[in-house]
Amino acid sequence: MHESRVFAPPRTSTGVEGLDEILGGGLSANRLYLLEGTPGTGKTTFALRFLLAGVARGERALYITLSETAAELRAVVASHGWSLDGIDIFELLDESGRDPDAEQSILYPSEVELGETIRKITAQIERAEPTRVAFDSLSEMRLLAQDPLRYRRQVLALKQFFSTRSCTVLLLDDKTSEPGDLQLHSICHGVISLEQTVREFGTESRQVRVIKMRGQKFQGGRHDFVLDTGRVAVFPRLVASQHRAPVRLEHVSSGTSALDEMLGGGLVRGTSTLLVGPSGVGKTTTAVSCMHAALRRGERATYFLFDEGLTTLILRSRLLGMDLDPYIESGQCRIKQIDPAELSTGEFSALVIEAVKVEGASFVALDSLNAYLQAMPGQSFLLLHMHELLTYLNHRGVTTLLIVGQHGAVENVRTEIDLSYLSDATIVFRFFEAEGGVRSAVTAMKSRTSQNQRTIREFRLSEGLGLQVGEPLAAFEGVMSGMPTYTGATKLLAADANG
Description:
alpha/beta; Rossmann fold; 9-stranded mixed sheet; 14 helices; 30% helix; 26% strand
């Protein structure tokens, strides 16, 4: 008795950056797929990339358009800097169809019009013998049919026709029918949905979701994608467990011996440290100091800057004795200014992954997550996203610093983002009043990997001396309330180098 083996069909690339990864290698060849989305989501651009990928492999490609003209398609392609060379365009609305005298054809019975349309399409396919076909779009067929049953019957007939041809077909649908056309979904081998959401401020959010794909495993859920001039790219949702690797935990210096002592030996590779405190207390400068120490050790570092201006950051660091210019010029240090209103979470994850995997960064700082929250649908989404991102960085042995600004300066200090349970170590900064002035204090509240000191020390930034951390201060009151008061006699840090 012989066992019959069923071989999986070969995979073919979608031509869209990142989409093949979500599909586990691309689309199964010689199948019928549905690409659906409301107008403006990018269906035509996805279809063109699919056909251009075939042309690059020497395949014959055919674009069937029932609504747009060939001239309109060429304008779309030209706007991206692409070329239609190698793609046959078959437009049903030809010059005779645009003749006003031909408008009487709308009086034909729907079956006659639809049947004639199908015959023209099948005849063109038999002549061109393409291996890739984009059919744009099903909404026109739906209008011609005027009846849901007749429309589905014709789609099924098209599927049966294509099954006799060796070609991969992409059917475009603008979802103008009743929501959730499950019968249409059942006819197709796979369904890909494009979605677009307009945010209250900033650019719109675009996402792609693979609803079904028969006989192949894919990564479910929503994945961000960008549609720009000359580029369409999908950013697969980050799943940290897929990047697990052994990491040897070791201490590295923060650049300040007193801070290392507070942390139980310094920062630890493969962990994340949260810097939290009110605005102006010194969180960013501390992060830059830690990065500067990593650069001096020969590591590569990437600093993602959301709030402060790049020029301001570099100038202030230079005044504090941390000149970043040589490292930036050599490429060892990269400071990337991020506009959260123009960047999706998926695209940001891709930037972080690129910094680690491609650029070799072993030190990453995110400054600050307050601005990043504005690009998120909500805080719960931020927590899930940051959990995956931090776990990925930990798996890669990266030293990560997160900065969170708190509202208020001297009392009722509060945080709109609570990431303390996600971080491996937490450093808290506070203002306090002593000797007629406002000073800064720092304490290491938590460390999962070291025996940290929970002492409170004075923290100071001064030109020429840079970042200073003093001896433990006794007799502090009100630290947890957000307004520490110093009542002890421990000597405070001098105001200048000669103090």
